[in-house]
Amino acid sequence: MSELPPTDWFSDAMRQRTARRYRRDRIFRGVGLAGIVLALGMLAVLLVGIASSGYQGFRQTQIYLSVELDVSAFPGITAEDVANDTVDVEKIRKGPYGKLVRESLMAMFPDVSGRSNIRELNKLVSVGAKNQLRQMLMADSSLLGQRVELWVPSGADVDGLVKEGLQTDVPEADRRLSDQQVEWVRQLDERGLLQTVLSDDFISAGDSREPELAGIWGAVVGSALTLLVTLIVSMPLGVAAAIYLEEFAKKGRLSDWIEVNINNLAAVPSIVYGLLGLAIFLNFFEMPICTCGWRADIGHDDTADDNHCRSCCIGCCAALYPRCGNRTWCLQNAGDLPPHLTIGDARYSDRQYYWYGPCTG
Prior knowledge:
The protein is mainly alpha-helical. Among the domains are: 14-55; 58-199, no CATH class. 49% of the residues lie in helices and 10% in strands. 23% of the residues are buried.
């Protein structure tokens, strides 16, 4: 077998081959760098698009109201009670705040008449306006008998209209606000009775069926609690199991079966196992949907629209059951069921009652 001639690394042919290899390497690196730059550019475009479209979600449109808090509008409260600072908080809680808000709107548009027009006018203001007024008065009962000025959240449709620059290119039949409502909103804007501010409720509020009142606090706290519990439970068990399987367990069918299941757990999204566990705990073990206490103060004679609630451990409830937010009350036993509600009005479980109402705060 003949030997190959020694390679001349400094020959012209070798120099050309080396130059071609370096040139291809530079092209490859350039293509890779261009791909990274293109990916970062697309990511920047995506983030800018999300920010430009979603930043309005952090802003809230508010309407100015001047409300006359006439003492006579609150049954059971007298001027002497206000003067002596002996007003019953429960009587303040049951006040006709919806009526007071409507009267304030009517004072700004005195020409509006007819039930349908008044109803359309009332839709300009969010249902959270009366709750805001209630909270203000409960915090300072001395406001009774005075005229208070406050900014209240507008309805979701008004909020969207204002954020679009009060433009209505869509025909009236294809939008939620009528031409008359749009004209009222424009009048409010011209009179300086509209403003758009950063929304505190978006961060601090929980779930709500009213878009303008909904927030992420319940989801944030629920996610944090879920991660905390998961970390406390799974980390020690996971680390201990890994050490045992790797260092001490004998190889066999059982260890192989455990390894296969671990690989499946790593491959399948965790939400699938979460839903499976939720179904098992709720249906098989019959555990309560919401494990933390919610109480409802709804023992008054007003309509359901004026009901209100106090939250307790909102994050836990929101994490376990999305509807167990600002609109769900977990009454711990039958004795707590309000007298004007019956079992037919509630959804019954072995350990708790749930009654869904229009509570927004």
